[in-house]
Design brief:
Blueprint (H helix, E strand, L loop, with lengths): L1 E9 L8 E7 L3 E10 L2 H15 L11 H21 L7 E2 L1 E7 L3 E7 L3 E6 L2 E5 L5 H7 L30 E2 L4 E2 L5 E5 L1 H4 L4 H10 L3 H15 L7 E9 L5
Antiparallel strand pairs: 1-12, 2-3, 3-4, 3-5, 5-6, 6-9, 6-10, 7-8, 7-11, 11-12
Amino acid sequence: MKADTACLSKPGGRKVNQDACGFDESEAGSCWVLADGLGGHAGGETASRMAVESVLPNFRIETAFSPQGMSDCFTNTQKAIQDKAAAEPALSEMRTTLVVLACSNDGQAFWGHVGDSRLYWFRQGRIWHQTRDHSVPQMLVDAGKLKPEEIRGHEDQNRLTRAMGQDGAIRPTVLQAPLTVENGDAALLCSDGIWGLILEQEMEADLQSAGSAQEWLAGLEKRLLARAAGPYDNYTAIAVLFTRSMQT
């Protein structure tokens, strides 16, 4: 399995970027991580950075590439953030979203998330799967009181029901059955600074016209900047295009 990866993270219309992202490759496979920090400038920056730095080392060993390994990764990251907050009172309110994608070298992919940073999985150029936010608007959708498309721009869009660093144990949503990656599949991990301004059909259109992960992100950013105004949010995304090696 080969993966063409591109990353984008910018402060947008704000002075400080509280988002963080990163990816790593090892003999066991690859991992992509994105976090959107909350809780004041210092707290948000610290929490998101800690999340990325905590997650990546977990996926340098083969046994981590499993649903249980993914859950353990979130548990370990939660403890690291909580311990840091307990040791430094100024960071006591820090929180972060977290979305993680992992793919073993034999092409088995799975993911987990907490908060409203999303993972979109594309097959044949179309969205095949989308994570469900841990947020108040998503709860309203689940209750039949809001349409899914009304999450974007809702007055409570930023009210999360789960976040890394919150009190108690964390409950990530983890894909329980690994997905076999097909040739041409793609993934987009993104903070709400991206999906809040870009529609899903536009993500598909830009993917279909792009020749690389970097071109895909460039198209998305162009759309975002054409719409963004005022103190708009930090925006961060990781684009991944997968190619399976052909057996002879």
